[in-house]
Amino acid sequence: MHSKDKTTLELGTRPVGSLLMQYALPAIIAMVASSLYNMVDSIFIGQGVGPLAIAGLAITFPFMNLTAAFGAAIGVGSSTLISVRLGQKRYDEAQNILGNNLTLNILVGVVFTVGCLAFLNPILTFFGGTEKTLPYAREYMEIILAGNVITHLYFGMNAVLRAASKPRHAMYATMFTVLMNTALDPLFIYTFDLGIRGAAYATILSQLTALTWQLWLMSDKKELLHLRRGIYALKARLVRDILSIGMSPFAINACACIVVIFINNALVHYGGDLAVGAYGIGNRLVFIFLMVNMGINQGMQPIVGYNYGAKNYSRMMKAVNYAIIAATAVTTTGWLVCEVFTSPCISLFTTDRELHDIAVHGLRINAAVLPVIGYQMVIINFFQSIGKAKISIFLSLSRQMLILLPALVVLSRMFGIDGVWVAMPVSDTLAAIIAAWFMIVYMRRFRVKTDTLSGKTELEMTEPEHDKFRRTYSYYASRNGATPRGMAPQAGASQMIEEENAD
User: Fold this and answer.
1) DSSP character for 1?
2) What is the pTM for the complete model shown?
3) Angstrom distance (rounded) from CA 217 to CA 368
4) Beta strand 446-450 with 457-461: parallel, antiparallel or unpaired?
């Protein structure tokens, strides 16, 4: 049997628990490495430069969200199309998509860099910068923006590697940048006395080194998908398809940017510059556990999508239940760490007593309902995995735009700085309730059926659904069964492509 056929078959036959672990582990490693990448910068900046530098770094978070938004628009869109075209054996078009990926990342990176550098001070002020934190934020972002094209290309090539059935190489690239950044940060910050600029130089140099290796990998002419002449000219149809597929992750990251801007400004208004730095520290710590959950979800997605397409709903729900248990265990562990070991965790980032006390207080409130976020994330990814993109997007944005922003405005006016902190667990709780309600309503479509001969029970759907997504995911799973990262956006996008062709 062909190896890809075996990969596809195991999604519907192997024990779900071991299958979930096999698919989730590489994604968890890559996601945690990515989270540590940002955490390392914060630790060295906080210890080596000072508390206001930490606050200045937190002011730059919206920039990171915007970069991620544009990167997702191009990366998810192009990697999806590449996967689909390879499965359709349209290899020349897959090559052109690869070339357009590089060209788009260069163009977007240049435009983003020039536009932001031209108006850097007003933008950082709008993001919550003050006369005390603005110099640090500007020093950091000048270097980051100067290397923005490198960042876009690095993340874009990682997405292509996953689409080309090289998830381990993408993971290696991520891990390498973390290790190199960790080695260069103390060298540039302490030895060369570059301050916060040193952290930025370490980031860009690490990404440049990884990008060089990625380009070398993709230049191998023996590979089906490789860099060559004649593929870099932008084609209107390909650009349109790439951006239309990438619009969903772009919107989610852009909304995250808006939310962080509101949080930063509220914290500055009610708590001062150090409150922003405290939020930045807490955010880094909580994000580690959320990244583990994202890895679990990415491992769950191909299993859920394949068995949904095969109408094997019992296996589908078993994967979801295992993922919910694992995700809740992770976020509960995160809750214990943030609530019990708060002070030691904050001390990793700063020795400043005032910043330490604000961060301890803020983190304990911010992480108060962390356990419920685990199952909420699984539910969002479940709907994405079975092609319910609108529900998934609504649930993703409900916490950020529909609940958190109003809560910030109302609670901060009532309780000041504590209102800002409380708004976050309040929005998490309400968003988790909404997600649970959607899941309960959807599960009413199923009923338990007992086989009269074997006595085994299975789930069956009482309300038939549209079959286009099933056919598309069956193809996609056969093409990328061993590639968990980015699976859900690609599966949903495959549905979109098929529907367009049907029209």
Assistant:
1) -
2) 0.85
3) 45
4) antiparallel
